[in-house]
């Protein structure tokens, strides 16, 4: 990549991947990947099981380095930056984070402790500002009434919402959501989609990347899509351009029909 061009471009880019390949045990998890996410964009990364979506999100979360190619996150090049500093600027929710929360932890503390980059309450007193911020986020996600409950007693949907509140606690510049609606029932999914939509439409919210298998889970307000299949981009760009029956069929290897109802998407086999 040309360094002079990159310096200008990178100022407005939250994620920039150029010629990225990730190899593990002889497998190409990602190949030939070019991708750019700007500050005000909300991206959905869509693809079948094993397509490389989580691998891509872990690159964006500075949890993984590419085998070849370059990845810049928030203007910093992976491999040339202290990833621990970089990660404080990124909110990331995934099943892996879910599994690390102590079940006895109170919901408010799960959210609060993000500001201290720990899981499990470790300080007896937090700043009043932090507590107010945590309560504000619990209200935004509709779980204020659960603030005193132990995380382990929550339903799947309530846990997901708690972890999204946690990932917003540090006012991240980039929010990464790995399959936030997985395992939710219809009501839980619809509630989460509505809350993520409100977040996506909030001009003050960070840039967002949401990974999903299902077009039904795309919250209105998301602007761009990257379709991944077998580690490669099938299509990438504005949601309305990229989300077509043809692209979806190629991505999932089946003859699919995409339907749109208002600002929501649905897909079925032809
Ligand atoms: N350490 C590894 N060694 C070899 N292959 C791996 C390794 N880690 C992941 N893979 C493979 O890489 C591919 C991409 O994995 P990844 O988790 O990124 O896919 P995904 O799109 O998130 O899948 P899913 O939707 O099922 O979560 C999968 O086929 C997976 O088996």
Automatic annotation (TrEMBL):
GO terms for molecular function: ATP binding; ATP hydrolysis activity. The keyword Transmembrane helix does not apply. Residues 15-255 form the ABC transporter domain. It comes from the Bacteria. It holds the Pfam family ABC_tran. The keyword Nucleotide-binding applies. Keywords: ATP-binding, Nucleotide-binding. PANTHER family: SKFA PEPTIDE EXPORT ATP-BINDING PROTEIN SKFE. This is ABC-type molybdenum transport system, ATPase component/photorepair protein PhrA.
């Amino acid at each position: 990549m040309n360094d002079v061009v990159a310096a200008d471009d990178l100022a407005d880019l939250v994620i920039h991947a150029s010629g990225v390949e990730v190899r593990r045990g002889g497998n190409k998890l990602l190949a030939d990947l070019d991708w750019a996410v700007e500050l005000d964009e909300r991206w959905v990364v869509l693809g079948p099981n094993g397509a490389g979506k989580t691998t891509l999100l872990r690159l964006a979360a500075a949890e993984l380095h590419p085998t070849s190619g370059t990845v810049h996150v928030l203007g910093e090049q992976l491999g040339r930056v202290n990833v621990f500093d970089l990660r404080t600027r990124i909110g990331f929710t995934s099943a892996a984070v879910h599994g690390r929360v102590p079940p006895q932890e109170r919901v408010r503390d799960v959210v609060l402790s993000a500001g201290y980059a720990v899981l499990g309450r470790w300080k007896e007193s937090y700043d009043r500002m932090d507590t107010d911020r945590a309560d504000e986020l619990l209200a935004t996600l509709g779980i204020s009434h659960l603030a005193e409950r132990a995380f382990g007693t929550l339903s799947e949907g309530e846990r997901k919402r708690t972890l999204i509140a946690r990932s917003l606690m540090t006012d991240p510049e980039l929010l990464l959501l790995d399959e936030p609606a997985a395992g939710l029932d219809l009501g839980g999914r619809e509630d989460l989609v509505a809350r993520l939509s409100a977040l996506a439409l909030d001009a003050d919210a960070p840039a967002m990347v949401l990974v999903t298998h299902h077009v039904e889970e795309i919250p209105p307000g998301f602007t761009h899509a990257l379709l991944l299949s077998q580690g490669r981009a099938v299509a990438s760009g504005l949601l309305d351009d990229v989300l077509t029956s043809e692209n979806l069929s190629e991505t999932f290897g089946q003859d699919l029909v995409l339907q749109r109802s208002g600002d929501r998407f649905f897909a079925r086999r032809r």
